[in-house]
Amino acid sequence: MPEKQQYELLLKYRLAFISETWVNWCEELGTVLANDEVKDGYSERGGYPVEQKLMKQWSLAITAYADRLLQDLNNLDWPDSIKEIQKNWIGKSNGVLLNFKTEEFERYIEVFTTRPDTVFGVTFLVLAPEHRLVSDLTIPEQKEKVNQYIRESKAKSERARQSNKQVSGVFTGSYAIHPFTKEKIPIWIADYVLINYGTGAIMAVPCGDQRDWQFAKSFDINIVNIFEGVDIKDSANEQKDICLKNSDFLNSLTYNEAFSIASKEIESKGIGKIKTNFRLRDAIFSRQRYWGEPFPVYYESELPYIIENEEVVTLPEIDQYLPTKEGEPPLARAKKEDWNIFKGDRMEVNVMPGWAGSSWYYLRYMDANNDLEFCSREKSNYWGQVDLYIGGSEHAVGHLLYSRFWTKFLYDKGFVSFNEPFKKLVNQGMILGRSSLVYRINNTNTFVTAEKKSEHDVTAIHVDVSLVTNNILDINLFKKWRPEFEGAEFILNDQNNYLCDSEVEKMSKSKFNVVVPDDLIQKFGADTFRLYEMFLGPLEQYKPWDTSGINGVHNFLKKFWRLIHDEKNNFLISEEEPSKDSYKTLHKTIKKVKEDIDRLSFNTPVSALMICVNELTDQKCNSRKIISGFTLLLSPYAPHLAEEIWSKLGNKTSITKASFPIFNQNYLEESEFTYPVSFNGKMRFKATFGIDKKQKEIEKEILENENTIKYLSGKKPNKIIVVHKRIINIVF
Ligand code: ANZ
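That is the input. Now the predicted structure with ANZ docked in place:
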């Protein structure tokens, strides 16, 4: 029910719409993918090829929020790098839509340009191969070439098209009329023009745009130079602060002035209009798979309707989680009676994408048992925004953008009182794996130790890190690891060891460097594991996982245990009042741990805790007051051990219910101070006095000091200056 309410809102407020768009189609996965789910022309999950396909899809109008998504970045306590990525992804451009009339028939080609100032440099137009006018504009003689080119570019991903260094394109055979010069300019198609951006067509200015320049050079198209004093023989001029020439009413102006004059002229001539464009696209909201929220939508005469005031539509059971023979999504396998709700002629058979849930789950957490609403206003008012969100930077243009948009929508409709979901964002670094490499001499089953690899022709092979200790390979385990290594031979080093090389890289099964926590937990316990993970380094940094340091952390916990247990493992706690030193040790640790945790520095408290145990061990301190405090400090890092000791200390409730120890500055104050004692400004010796000692008493005692008597050698002092906790100066 609550989910239904969420999605009904989206549909009701016309945020969701159906349109025929070019989508990333992944044949192998049988589904459309969002732009952030596609990497270099392959699906992010599984690595299957993705091609462009025209499909009828539900979309969400995230572009309606583009400007606010951009502006509101300024108010977020997020890493600059993520803000920059979002800014570029939203990609705001101010420009002009301009119409070029075609020569043959009454058609207009609308282009989007950010450089109306260069309009007199336009010598051809380029349409994306998918542009709807391509077939009309292609003359019969060019049809075959054009169709061939369209087929080829379909297989290329958008990214590949943008980064393609090779110039390619085909002439349609048609011409357009330049709106100012009235000259005939050829119309081409090329896949460097993307169908989903702007209008899917450009005015090409070879003297001002490098891609256009290369295109014109390759296909021998006319280039007009409109830049005063600039040579464009070898490349285009992309500098903006150059005076224009060959540009009629724009002559001798530079970019800023020319931009606004040209835009105004275009508008007043009625051939175009000023337009802000965003690179951000509306987000496709349909997926052709089984797992996902079904839409509360049915169709009647092919018109979609929302299912209102009824139970939530649930996923129907189907015989196979596969598309139908006709290529329909898996839900199309469900018969009428398989649906818990069936209305109209047919139900919607697409499902929602993963981000349909991830965009607002934080709100649901606030009111998880509410059967009527997704989250009551009262609850979201109480909890407010997420104060701190720790997450990976891989979500920069997916989840983190969708969630912001979703929250803004709910805010606009009055369902929540804040318009951003996550106040502060911290990107944690990845844990990297340390791989081990062995060297097989080519065409043999002989492995050579790393020191001698250069003497042979070798291939490096990743070996499972569990077979390697301190870079030394356990040969017996290695032989058992894989059948093909059973009969392997080894060339060892001078110490009779087989030394591996190591490399720090992404943790991955294929590199055999994945550390299974279970094994380490079995050996060292979950507390050591957790503590060690924290100890690895700063939260935000990428850190190599290197298990060789885990013993140190484990020993620290054992040392703490020994501090409060005798040789027979009996719990040993003293009721005595702790010494000043022990109080000082504890309180400086409280201060450090608290301050560090507050600033999300989770690794540094571990060394503070280690120092604390070392000092308490030296002080032979097992006093209840100190051990209780320390156990509390340790509890976020080693909760099991801390809980056990907490209970041994006689506490009846869990340590998780106890409050964090409070730092007291007084314990850090020194009780004594050693003053340098000077005579007429010259330092002669040192003398120690209690911090609380009165000035008069210090004066009296210093005069009685035998060293003072010696240095005064009978003279009478004129003045004794005592600066508290600084110096004593005797003037005579
Ligand atoms: C003429 C021109 C002259 C351009 C010049 C640039 C430099 P941004 O800033 O990213 O918005 N363009 C427009 N639509 C395109 C599409 N669908 N595919 C590929 N390129 C497209 O870029 C806007 C500029 O990118 C536009 O301005 C257009 O080329 C090109 F000296 O028009 B320009």
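The mean pLDDT is 92.
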